[in-house]
Protein: Thioredoxin domain-containing protein
Organism: Sphingomonas rustica
Amino acid sequence: MRVTLALIASLALAGCGGGSTDGNVATAQGPAAPKVAAPAGKKWVDVVEKTPEGGMRQGNPNAPVKLVEFGSRSCPGCGYFATTAVEPLREKYVSTGQVSYEFRDFPLHPQDLGLILIGHCVPAESFFPILDGMYADQKSFNDRAAQIPEDTFRKMQSMAPGDQAKQFVNLLGYAEFMKQRGVSQAQLDKCLSDQSAIDAVAKNAQAGVEKGVTGTPSFFINDVKFEGGWEQMEPALRAAGAR
């Protein structure tokens, strides 16, 4: 499906780290949301499920405050949020049942298609550990991407989406990363060849564009677009009712 590659090429113009650092912060706090107990034997951070929009949601599905991130796995701005803000977000707000955190993959760079396909090639409970690991090692992966010879890159551009995705996953070291976490080569090959999944990446990305996503990371709090980093986001979550 060539439209997937064309879409990624057009989205790359939007760029990574496009959010404002000023942030839209509400000044008045709403009523505090009560803390909600997780299902017996579980913590809210362990409750993970796929959403109809193609994202993965962590936490109370009925949380009064819903945070959605559109992110690219190769975007340094997304990596910064993942490695500095997600831990306090989970510890202080997702764990209480007051905030749910949904991640929706949004491809910006040529390698992103493959990263999305393998990132969803795991059970729901492994989705966020895999995502966290990709962001923790992002710099080394991106450094390898920058070293791909120009002629190799040109050849890859002429490949079908699934074949190009496999090349990036192997060249950049993501295949080995996944194998170290229990995903076999056969599983990777199957996920990278899944045309319905490739089509879904394009569909979900287009839905993000229509929602107003112009760069990554892009955030929505209770379906209202939010711009800013964690320093601005935490007050906004509290203004929406999280405590």
Residues 19-28 have pLDDT under 50 and may be disordered.
